């Protein structure tokens, strides 16, 4: 029992495509042919994927950044899996990137940065709605709130 | 055990970081007690009432209970929301840079009302003025002045000569030196126009800030020198600085 737990722990790794925690690479979601590959939902952490999957309302792909931009902590784009995201967008199949980072200033900074980066590439960047209370964690949101936030997502346009 | 001791403070929220699974450690610059670190229990939860109270840059009134090591937030109210500094990329970065420099210059439990008022003024300025780069530069210069690092200058601090042309800025003393007197290390070249800009921003009333004209290139150059100056005295890098490069 203890041994199999250790083995299970050792097998957990980051999916080489989306960055989600998984015991198989690519993960189950990336390997699922039925999922819509024209939409990528960008999240901060793997725990946010769990929250989003629980809603059963989202059928696209994910991309886990492994954190969010944090100017005061010096966490910049290079520290996150943003290069990997750009790589995934290269073939032009993805039409929409939904940014569903936490409704905090860091989550918002991340969303705004991605919009600045991706809009010039002709990719629609949307942000889940502000129905979520400011400052909270996505994985604490109840399913109904999250579904409303997803449905009410808005297009992020950049003016500069 | 005696009754729970309570106190009220007025403060600007500078930064939050996770503390355990559900709590947040909040760094604030208070009006009367300098920098403080306080605990917001349960603020990481979606339903928490406290999470709306500790949004970065907001001016808040906090009710604190005294803890043995850290004080905790019991409640309070937002006195002035700076939401506008949280939903625009440039403003987020500029406000973060100000908050970081302010946090580093402030000391715990050491009242510093001038710094508090300066930061508040500049947060407001970021929302109201078009020239955001000038507001940031103004903040760094004035924060260094408030902290006692930037002495007044009219003439060369060594020989007293009136400045003609380019000068040098001494990171250690914050003094401006003419080229004839220049020798030694730790000096940054300062073009004549940058020296004039530094001089005006050092003295201008915040209300008159929008009357000062300066081109973005000049502003950026002087900002870099002033950030070097701040880093020299803080003995640490300004972490948000690399984000300014993303904007440039
Ligand atoms: Zn995957
Ligand atoms: Zn001289």
Molecular structure report:
The complex is a heterodimer of chains A (160) and B (248). In chain A, strand 5, helix 5 and strand 6 (124-127) form a beta-alpha-beta unit. Chain A has helices spanning 2-11, 28-31, 46-54, 82-89, 105-118, 143-151, and strands spanning 13-14, 21-22, 39-43, 61-64, 96-99, 124-127, 154-155. The model of chain A has no long low-confidence stretch (mean pLDDT 88). Chain A contains six helices and seven strands. Chain A is of the alpha/beta class and 160 residues long. Chain A has a single domain (14-130, 140-151), classed as 3-Layer(aba) Sandwich (Dna Topoisomerase Vi A Subunit, Chain: A, domain 2), CATH 3.40.1360. In chain A, 34% of the residues lie in helices and 14% in strands. Chain A is globular. The model of chain B has no long low-confidence stretch (mean pLDDT 93). With 248 residues, chain B is α+β, with helices and mostly antiparallel strands. Chain B is built from six helices and eight strands, in the order E-E-E-E-E-H-H-H-E-E-E-H-H-H. In chain B, the strands form two sheets. Chain B has a five-stranded mixed β-barrel with strand order 1-2-3-5-4. In chain B, strands 7-6-8 form a three-stranded antiparallel beta sheet. The termini of chain B are far apart. In chain B, strand 4 and strand 5 (71-80) form a beta hairpin. Chains A and B meet through helix 5 of A and strand 1, helix 1 and helix 6 of B. Residues 156, 158-159, 161, 177-178, 180-181 of chain B line the site of one zinc ion (ZN).
